[in-house]
Amino acid sequence: MALERTFSIIKPDATRRNLTGAVNALIEKAGLRIVAQKRIQLTRAQAETFYGVHKERPFFGELVDFMISEPIVVQVLEGENAVAKYREVMGATNPANAAEGTIRKEFALSVGENSAHGSDSLENAQIEIAQFFSGNEIVG
Ligand code: UDP
């Protein structure tokens, strides 16, 4: 097992409903450590860059509008197999398919407003962390 870091976003639907602590409780219960965290307002340009891989998809415009609609909380999570583990803690993209006890099952409103983002690979985790945190902001 490898100690990894992954990148997480608590999305606007969750920050709007004051669920940052409730989401963090599920993260910590799963054994992941929050080693960096800050609340920020994404710019449109930042949101478009972050979700650039989806720019041809029909939901891209809505997704960007949603991600800038309220502040978000960006985080670095550390733990054994953190990338895969956090994907499990989040649950399926569509909350209708998410397992009991996951963030998305508990809190998501829809496939778009689904409360959390987590990196899908170790390589993307490193790229995403670097978009939002400098090294000295991460304290393991
Ligand atoms: N999304 C959406 N409609 C869709 C699929 C995805 O609005 O049909 C949004 C949703 O917020 C999702 C994000 O786009 O979390 C990124 O999609 P991806 O397939 O990468 O899912 P994730 O990795 O977040 O589970």
TrEMBL record:
EC identifiers of the protein: 2.7.4.6
One Pfam family of this chain: NDK
Molecular-function GO terms, alphabetical: ATP binding; metal ion binding; nucleoside diphosphate kinase activity
Catalytic reaction(s) noted: a 2'-deoxyribonucleoside 5'-diphosphate + ATP = a 2'-deoxyribonucleoside 5'-triphosphate + ADP; a ribonucleoside 5'-diphosphate + ATP = a ribonucleoside 5'-triphosphate + ADP
Gene3D superfamilies: Nucleoside diphosphate kinase-like domain (3.30.70.141)
Entry keyword annotation includes Methyltransferase: no
Class of the enzyme per the UniProt entry, highest EC level: transferase
SUBUNIT field: Homotetramer.
Protein name, as recorded: Nucleoside diphosphate kinase
The species this protein was found in: Ancylobacter polymorphus
Gene: ndk
